[in-house]
Amino acid sequence: MGSQEQVLEVARRARQAAAELAPLPRAVKDAALHAIADALVARSGEIVEANAGDVARAREAGTSEYMIDRLSLTDDRVAAIAAAVRHVASLPDPVGESVRGYTLPNGLELRQVRVPLGVVGIIYEGRPNVTVDAAALTLKSGNAVLLRGSSSAYDSNTALVEVMRGALADVAGGVPADAIQLVPGRDRDSVKHLMRARGLVDVLIPRGGASLINSVVEESTVPVIETGTGNCHVYVDAAADLDMAVDILVNAKTQRPSVCNAAETVLVHRDIADAFLPRALRALGEKGVTVHGDAAVRAHAGEGATVVEATDEDWGTEYLSLDLAAAVVDSLDAAVAHIRRYGSAHTEAIVTTSQSAARRFTALVDSAAVMVNASTRFTDGEEFGFGAEIGISTQKLHARGPMGLPELTSTKYVVTGEGHLKGV
Amino acid sequence: MGSQEQVLEVARRARQAAAELAPLPRAVKDAALHAIADALVARSGEIVEANAGDVARAREAGTSEYMIDRLSLTDDRVAAIAAAVRHVASLPDPVGESVRGYTLPNGLELRQVRVPLGVVGIIYEGRPNVTVDAAALTLKSGNAVLLRGSSSAYDSNTALVEVMRGALADVAGGVPADAIQLVPGRDRDSVKHLMRARGLVDVLIPRGGASLINSVVEESTVPVIETGTGNCHVYVDAAADLDMAVDILVNAKTQRPSVCNAAETVLVHRDIADAFLPRALRALGEKGVTVHGDAAVRAHAGEGATVVEATDEDWGTEYLSLDLAAAVVDSLDAAVAHIRRYGSAHTEAIVTTSQSAARRFTALVDSAAVMVNASTRFTDGEEFGFGAEIGISTQKLHARGPMGLPELTSTKYVVTGEGHLKGV
Fold first, then answer.
1. CB contact under 8 A, A102 and B385
2. What is the pTM of this model?
């Protein structure tokens, strides 16, 4: 399983499927999505049974209960996954949208229209719901997908993909089953072959931790969209409303610590540190947060949260837990410099009542999202009104921030003349 | 020269310069561009002298006169380069443009605004005017640039960059000289180090032949935008206007054969081949074109152009010369299949009077630009009304087709609330 030839073979079939998918009208794609949702519900028993095998093997291997929970499927969870597919069907189709259009001085009519990317590879970790989410979003945007989930969910993913492909067979209008394929093989080699399938695969989107993303970026010759590494900062300005600052910090850190838009570092302006830190440490302590502080922060230890000494490593760490790095800075510009040096350019927030501070912070911070007086947790495709997201890009090319359906497209120019010749 | 440490050092300086450039208002950037144009004209003598050395060395090395011409600078050419810089100054500044903006149901105000990419590396061949064009376009779009031209133009490029950097020193408002830097070293190693400067360089844009582009794509860990490989097709449909088809084909092939948007292959519908090919071969023959034909085309040999036997290699060749591959196809769909198999997804044209044929061709052909009844030669930033272009992207991510100033930017989301917390 997972030999280079096998991976290239599924990629070639995906390429052919992508060519057939691209011109399909929205109605056909939506019908396919509803057929998939129906089939997931109807065949929920098979899916849950396949998943039970993965879960049992994970338990035997000593996997943590948290990871077991992420891996597990029930009838209710499958129904929720099917509902998400129907929601994708309800979203506008980005393909064919005219993003630019005018008539040139020589009479040529130019239109720039959205087209599918082609073949999209998704490399992801534990949760099997990603298998269906990613398939639905890529199908809706006219792309063929190659799914490469965690080997721990291989049987679950195999069942889910089989159900989805089976559903496509019955849809009128010709949605090719090869639009949705699992990359064969449980071993790491199959990921390698996928990363070298340049010319067959148009883009790879790794979803997961920093080490997965870095290894894909390093080894892939297929273009990559980096997603989801979030070392997010909250900067409490000298002119902050202290109540608001405490609330935003606690929300950003503790509302769901395991996700990429949770805060990992707080930077506090020196002028407000003595007023802010005692209150913040108390509030963080109530939520069980351990603060990794610099000397100025540690001077307030004992006022609530557990405070330990921050090392240089802490500033660059995405904890994804109830830990928070904390430093006092001399100025807004010093906060910006800290963020530029240590941040992952995902989301940073400023809490301030000063319009000029907000303006300077949003201008100087070079991250996918900059929040003014709002929690970092709002960086999310649903929250931004995109209806759904395939991930949050932390790179600057192609798409930055939450990626919805339009971000799964490219464009082409269609230029219409009546015998137009150049230079005459 | 060109050690890894030296290349990383210029990249680090570029990164710092990019941070200073990003927030600069248009007026400062435009003043810098005019200062550059002034300095190029004022110091034209030095530039032409440095160029004379490059030209002499190229002559000694037996370089073709065509390449010598591309390399050579005169006072008039320097003046034209300066005029192009002033033209870039006249174009709108893409930075700060709001591309999306609305208020979310919870009252958060969301804006997606254009920001510079950061540090852009340009790898290019012979012509020294690219040095200045690329610097002007990247500066206008708020980016720092690392220029890596051909070693044959090293002294010319060194002089041009020195003049541009000198001009920046006198501009009010603080445009850092390190916004424009030459990658040190004439050797290939310096290109390698540039390609591995991930984290310091945000994007590499290779401009040049297929082999340059392929080697960058293969080796770079920095994201790459592929540009300029054009195996462009003209498809003459069964319903074509024959006069128009001959004119478009001759224009697309011969008006400037050495550029990426020139046609390299003509595909002729079988139903019209006997009527079209004799006229086409005559017209191509008058322009000195050698046709590499399949058997059906060769059956018309003797009617004008020199016709030789096409091999499989011809279908994938970007001649950039007065050569043209030619085949007869059974249908529009067969033409599309040929293009998908052998094309480079740059520009393809259909000549037809049939609305349904035009619609099907533009829907099925997956290239950066699709022309209907117009020459492939129109795929160009100037022609498309972009004012200028940094290159023509043949990839699907980030930018596709001619890249103007907006394509040299990314975006960020600025989200403003009044203490908004998630989930409460």
1. yes
2. 0.93
